[in-house]
Structures
1.
Amino acid sequence: MVSVSMTVNGRTVSGQCEDRTLLVQFIRENLGLTGTHVGCDTSQCGACVVHVDGKAVKSCTMLAAQADGSEVLTIEGLASGGELHPVQAAFRANHGLQCGFCTPGMIMSAVDMINRHGGKLDEKTVRAELEGNICRCTGYHNIVKAILDAASTMGDGTRVAAQ
Amino acid sequence: MGMEGIGARVARKEDKRFITGKGRYTDDMVAPGMKHAHFVRSPHAHARIRGIDSAAAEKMPGVIAVLAGDELAADAIGSLICGWMIHSKDGSPMNMGDWRPLAQTKVRYVGDAVAIVVADTKAQARDAAEAVEVDYDVLPAVTGSIDALKDGAPQIHDNAPGNLIYDWEIGDGAATDAAIASAAHVTEMKIINNRLVPNPMEPRAALGVYDEGEDHYTLWTTSQNPHVARLVMSAFYNVAPENKLRVIAPDVGGGFGSKIYIYPEEIVCLWASKKTGVPVKWNCDRTEAFLTDAHGRDHVSTVKMAFDASNRIIGLKVDTIANLGAYMSLFSSAVPTYLYATLLSGQYAIPAIHANVRTVYTNTVPVDAYRGAGRPEATYLLERVMETAARELGVSPAELRKTNFIREFPHQTPVIMCYDAGDYEASLNAAMAVSDYAGFAARKAEAQSRGKRRGIGMSCYIEACGIAPSAAVGSLGAGVGLWESAEVRVNAVGTIEVLTGSHSHGQGHETTFAQLVAERFGVGIDTVSIVHGDTDKVQMGMGTYGSRSGAVGMSAVVKALDKVEAKARKIAAHLMEADESDIVIENGELKVAGTDKSVPWFQMALAAYTAHNLPAGMEPGLKEGAFFDPANFTFPAGCYICEVEVDPETGKTEIIQFVASDDFGKIINPMIVEGQVHGGVAQGIGQAMLEAAHYDPETGQLLTASYMDYTMPRADDLPSFQVSTTETACPSNPLGIKGCGEAGAIGSPPALINAITDAIGNNDLTMPATAERVWAALRSAR
Ligand code: FES
Ligand code: FES
């Protein structure tokens, strides 16, 4: 067993877990934050994407122990003060989700993508950057639209860091 | 239409929880004292079980129990069933092999469940499962349907000689043969429909909770139809009587057919919860999902299409072999028969059709309905043959289709279906206009100048949805009726709950069903809640598949709304001392036409519950239920056009444009309908270009059992789609809805393959058209 402690969505949390516990398990099972999902066992689907120290990370690819001392942002921490993050709002406005299972990972990847590219995103870039996120419902059409919409709303220089 | 009524592009009510991480899926559920399960599964495709030794596993840390098939049988838990009886053409019933939830004597596919381990944590259950020793006597295996029918093939079930499940036919064989003999031209093809893995992003999961005090069971499960699950588990699997079994399907992360069926794991988790005295949760990992979720398609067919001298189709003969896997899944028998061969007339007037279908057992996971179920197989076969015939006859693909379109309705086909309404040429013309079909030659020449090969292909599909009239499906062998139920509860303050037997796993029912109420009463959709997915709340329902939620589920809501409206009018008329026929309902008020008298909706509702001043003899309250059984299937149809560019150096295909023109009848929310088409088309493109389940023919191992090996369509594989609709109303339900859930997956594969074969000048191409296959086909065409 290891003890880990980290900041998740702005709150300091700590807990005991088996050495082999993945970050996603720690988030879901120890912290009860079930918005982060598990869709595969080979780090391909992106349902588990969270931000660790400001970068998008597949939380199934990292041990909880490796995140010790880190700042983690999950989908539950993205909206602030009851106000949706522009990417969340854009997913809803553009019907960028159906069953919602891929959605938390998609949104966390999209926020990271917009943070890196600012308002300069185009469709080709968005599609290439979404390579690590699988959606079976939407055919990506409206996800791409939502991300481009959010990017233009947020514009250049809008960075959302882990709180 | 109002701002939130029928036809409005309303953003979804359910989105808020999903975009904020507050969705509640089965694996998110926690029951007090809950423990975790892992299944011991066969590593062999075909083997006898000599013995199971769980002594070592039972001693592992955290292990509560290791339970195997003998104990399950001792508790009289039943075998899994197929719920649709098909008879062979000689009159004999289909050969249904025994499918135990935990195999006792024999395993028949890699992944067949043998035992369940329950432990404190998931990891401990998995570790202990590794330590369960199963002594297997490995037998030869067969995975392909053609091989399974050969003499000397391994025999999978004792009661299915030669692995044949049934040998069924439909249509008039003699008339079809005569048409072919007299034809001016016959187009012949061999068509393979590749085997697919549905892959909803949420893996299956189950949480079984046994309450000893009440002798009651609760199951949380990833199901498209929780009521059907309860019915089947109660009536056939002997888990518990219906009144002692509650099934809840909370948020479900996609289904596409694969979550219709009742699988061994749900049954075993419920049973294990009673055995161990603790709630038992199982969550599937992705490789386990590849190994155990019902697969789709897997047909091999030969087809002959006969034309007269004026290019009219005079006969169609089809022979199909369908692989149903190791056991017959819940609706597996219906897919290659009544959901497939009954659609072989397509959009065309064909006087004579004959289809013969053989289904076979193989040592692979069971095959059942996957988005479209039978209709994609029929459409792919027909639309490839049509395009091929046009090339052979030297006429344009559009002209050949127009020559043969059905133009008068109702139209009785020779294969059971009676099409009620449609305008196929309208869809074709719309798709050709959007795709600038006329300008293709110039685009092709331009591509040629860059050394690229351009191709264009079309597909005109029809499907039968809104399944289905109960008496009709009953006469064809279905074990259930396919109606739907609804209940509308108006609360004392005027807010409304709609209970439905339909189940939403991405379709947006919480929004679209509320739009029906907004349309009817002029109330905001925020005052309407949709309740579904819980057998304790909704009395009965048949669930969501076959694009039936709109045509059947919403129709039941409309019937219940009719009853609520009738009573509301009576109450309002009484309150305002007016004539009932003068009451109009709009903008959340009940008004007396031509006067300024009105009562707000909530006041009428309150009056119903205070019951201080109701018409004489009227019961208090405002709550009505209804069942709707459709009069016919619905027949969505449309035309898809795909344009591709192939790089002759690499065989890589780029989709330049994909145009969909669909007739779904009346549309409740165009935004959601477009989303359904996008998703369906993506799955169809996946089938045509990327996806295939491959079993090793010798060992029966699934070689494509992860996202490293099975190519899921990703954002950079796909273009943005151009979708639009035309409309002919469906006469068999009150809303005129046809359904839109499957069309994309049905219509798109032939459009894409027709485009690629056009580009490369070689018609000999099998799905998925990977770069390697396209490159090889290009080279052999030179
Ligand atoms: S669960 Fe992490 S990538 Fe699939
Ligand atoms: S919305 Fe269902 S997987 Fe993306």
Note: Chain A has two domains: 2-77, 86-162.
2.
Amino acid sequence: MTKDSQGFLWEVFIQSKPGQPHRHCGSVHAHDKEMALQNARDVYTRRNEGTNIWVVRSEYIVSSSPEDIGPFFEPANDKIYRHPTFYSVPEGVTHM
Amino acid sequence: MENSEQERNFDAKLERNETIEPKDWMPDNYRKHLIRQISQHAHSEIVGMLPEGNWITRAPSLRRKMVLLAKVQDEGGHGLYLYSAAETLGITREELVSQLLTGKAKYSSIFNYPTLTWADIGAIGWLVDGAAIMNQVMLQRTSYGPYARAMVRICKEESFHQRQGYEIMMVLAKGSPEQKAMAQDAINRWWWPSLMMFGPTDEKSPNSANAIKWKIKRESNDQLRQKFVNQTVPQAEIIGLTVPDKDLVWNESKKGYDFGTPDWEEFYNVIAGNGPCNKDRLAARTKAHAEGAWVREAAQAFADKRKELEVI
Ligand SMILES: [Fe+2]
Ligand SMILES: [Fe+2]
């Protein structure tokens, strides 16, 4: 028996309504991009769950690593002046 | 024993009911347990297509045929969601498929029973999907993120499966005496195997303790079985069918039914490969896999060819 191949692994992202961001929903196997899109449609949108699908080969996804969660996101931690609550506004000022 | 920092982080996450994600550190046994459980679950969805697929061409009306086709297609989809969740743990699709075909991996033993009459399709949707839903609703809160998310998707799709099965039973039960007898015969044959779907009793369930400790499962086999009996018996009564258990009696103090013991010897025997359809099921999967090989090869050759052309 020749070695079985189920094709490449692709991550699937679905936009549920126009204007919404695409959300990751799982993965499919396919040998090329057209097949990946068709498989994603058949597997993840049997009940009109989507208006648009992105597929991307899983090996091209780059992810930060969970162990580095502290140091990696640290630069954002001490910059409370990025939030509106950091600033005081006199009583009676509205629309701000 | 001194726990590593990684282990303490893992435990703390479980404690806070946070999900464990694919790249998080996890104990080897947690990973192994999940691969076994999720792949077994995936294989069950795929093999589960066979007993029902068997009736698609013989469904009694176009409506029933459409519905059954959609249901069986959903089960195929469930298998794929679950394979995809298992793959995030570092096992490949090829390995998963080969474990099923070589008999190394198990699937739910309920699918080793034959579907003899049309009423069996009703009994499967109502009882077998009903029991599966009971388990899957719990698993929506399982600790491994990709598994939990697959379950949320599956549960949304499952409720029509159970309803269409119950509807088949209801229509038969209201029909001619022969039709009613056919429905009763189906529940007689599927009731006990459905109760066995929750697995052995808690004392006899080797993997349960870990599964509970790791929050993979949040309710025990016996608890789920009890819930299933409580919810299903009244459903049978409403359509005038009887659950084939002479020990079944309402117990007011526990607000639930007392019920008889499934034939565990039969259960272990079917798991061991001696059920009525074990051989047929594996043979059908092996045949489908072998007959699909040229399609996979051709698809790969086509993709390679196009890649070459793109480069030029
Ligand atoms: Fe399913
Ligand atoms: Fe189902």
Note: Chain A has one domain: 8-86.
3.
Amino acid sequence: MLRPLAPCPPSSVDTPVMPPIISISNLSKTYASGFQALKRIDLDIDKGEIFALLGPNGAGKTTLISVICGIVTPSTGTVTVGGHNILTDYRAARSLIGLVPQELHTDAFESVWATVTFSRGLFGLPADPGHIEKVLRSLSLWDKKDTKILFLSGGMKRRVLIAKALAHEPKVLFLDEPTAGVDVELRKDMWNVVRALRASGVTIILTTHYIEEAEEMADRIGVINKGEIILVERKAELMRKLGKKELTLQLHNALDAIPAELARHKLALAPGGKELTYTYNTQGERTGITALLDDLARANIRFRDIQTTQSSLEDIFVGLVRKDQ
Amino acid sequence: MNVRAIRSIYVFEMARTARTLFQSIVSPVVSTSLYFIVFGAAIGTRIQEIEGVNYGAFIVPGLIMLMILTQSTANASFGIYFPKFTGTIFEILSAPVSFVEIVIGYVGAAATKSIILGLIILATAGLFVPLRIDHPVFMLGFLVLTAVTFSLLGFIIGIWADGFEQLQLIPLLVITPLTFLGGTFYSIDVLPPFWQTIALFNPIVYLVSGFRWSFYSIADVSVGVSLAMTFVFLALCIVTVWWIFKTGYRLKR
Ligand SMILES: Nc1ncnc2c1ncn2[C@@H]1O[C@H](COP(=O)(O)OP(=O)(O)O)[C@@H](O)[C@H]1O
Ligand SMILES: [Mg+2]
């Protein structure tokens, strides 16, 4: 049947709507112990993005990933991956996913080559030694391909797990705390792999508590605490919205207390009295710096030096989680 | 059907067997030979033929059954318990494989191994005693059915077990005693009538009896009943496995 061409609503012209690669709605998980690890999670992951899930230990990051991957059964809610329901259409959904778990769950007596080949077969793909070789080389595992996993270091085992996850050419890659306790070399290798994957259109969801990594790598950041997503934001937006700046003044002469002329500014006096710190919001229309400097001159306070610092994602994160408690 | 996944699991499990080939084959062969020396040679010389069959030859089917039962349960339970123990099960659970495929892979490999062992023991036995196989097709049929059934049972035990002790528990407390009391080394006709009735509640009596019939055409219970009981047992295991996967029992949290 031919459908008449309908005029497009104007909004859809400038924002082409791409369906999310992962769509989570009303997802909760209560473990058999009665502990509720996830509370009504709603979250969409866009195709091709790097999404960082940040949260303190026990927040529910691993549980969320495990539900999506089919290791933990959800208590309520639905999850689709590439449009496929993870429960009713699990084959199609799981075929798209590669998972690098948080723990180093590896075989011991298998060779690297065998275990990675096994992973590809398990996902129903025909053998492709060329692809496996490419993956192993990209993770600097090629010269270890015949080594039994037992004899590898922790960092090397982590690489093997990544290789296993990439063996079946996933469209979505989960990295659960991939750099926890990992050497600098591997981190570098790993981020190179992640960048290359992303360039080829793979969606990447990672959890980490190395916040610099989320800051450096992610397109969007979600913060989870006590089983609830408390914030999802583009990284730049997040930095802008919540980014606080501090202006620090090194004084010539120590102060005993903040003078009355300066009372209307949010100032903190460091112990010793030689340093004044002014905290302001970068997103505000006015930062109040001019007024502060005027008042300083009026109070006849002279300073030797001045510096500003931008709060990192870590500060933002700690602030958010603390507020939530 | 994700046939490649089944093959991957099967090959992986068979590779595990191959790595431990020495223990896998040598220890059952040695212990079977010991049975022959003790029961066949030492005691057998004092025992008359049973229903026209030399005693040493009489115990061969029972011994093979004993090995098949213990090896199938041990192998399959370890095969699925170990990934649970090490955590590598995560990969199986997150792969696009159905539960049926997982079972075929693991149980198929465990059953294959015990069938091979059974045949090796049969060949070993041939060195000690004169063997006769009246119904080779039935013989193979019982061998395969029993290996599959008890591999399924082992799989169930492996999923249920929470520790290595539990893994040993059922084989030690249930399977071994039932096998010894199941007419492995004697015909249940030699038992007093009361114990004969009790013995009929022992499923292993039917397996051993049917298997022995396929060798010498002599049986404690009719072959039809033996075969039927074997299938009942198989069906019981299949239903249990199906229920486990339906409910995610002890596999998914
Ligand atoms: N199998 C389980 N049974 C009961 N509680 C669990 C289980 N697994 C995890 N939890 C609890 O759920 C919470 C979230 O755990 P997890 O998802 O691992 O957090 P994260 O990965 O963010 O550190 C924790 O409090 C943890 O103790
Ligand atoms: Mg975790």
Note: The pocket of adenosine-5'-diphosphate (ligand 1) is lined by residues A 31, 33, 35, 37, 55, 57-63; B 253 (CB under 6 Å).
